[in-house]
Amino acid sequence: xxxxxxxxxxxxxxxxxxxxxxxxxxxxxxxxxxxxxxxxxxxxxxxxxxxxxxxxxxxxxxxxxxxxxxxxxxxxxxxxxxxxxxxxxxxxxxxxxxxxxxxxxxxxxxxxxxxxxxxxxxxxxxxxxxxxxxxxxxxxxxxxxxxxxxxxxxxxxxxxxxxxxxxxxxxxxxxxxxxxxxxxxxxxxxxxxxxxxxxxxxxxxxxxxxxxxxxxxxxxxxxxxxxxxxxxxxxxxxxxxxxxxxxxxxxxxxxxxxxxxxxxxxxxxx
Length: 270
Description:
By secondary structure, the chain is α/β, with parallel strands linked by helices. 32% of the residues lie in helices and 26% in strands. It is globular.
């Protein structure tokens, strides 16, 4: 008996073979596109980090964190206040008629909130008895599908794509027995977070740390400075990913353009 799940073989296998072989390429010849998710607390220099990219468009999804890059990197910024704004800028970038080689969606946490407002507004318009401040399971389902579609759409753009997000800590275990574990990941719903994780080759966790420098003169006081570190290596306490084989646990004062140049050998074309 024929397996019903097995697809029926087409009679024009010659044409299929031609179409398939036209698309087959060595991995080394595929386009060099950097995909990353950078997350952390507010004010951990996520916007500054993505602004290190050359020829980059910063999509500010109601974050307004651009003051930190106004006087030096000064990237081109597209501010998003409505869901339709996000759709417009996607189609603009997808057209290819623009000067940008990279785009940063800053950030996914705000984008999820914007999407929720969009869906709740639509639901309230359809049903006047519905409380617009109480999302149902169906509303969350719509938000998830819209978010996942946009994340994948931007991932598929022919350019470097960076997402940012705020962090969320999940506490598990019994506090009374002091057997508590804390895991840090992007502040997104589980299904949306899963899509974002799969869409990128690198996930970096941003964190500040205090460093005390030795005094330059004898008898002087040590000077305290705050430095930024992006963790990318395997960790049991925060979500990270390194598909590009960066080969280190963390990057000090991360510069994404320098990182891309190192990965692709200063040759991003292709």
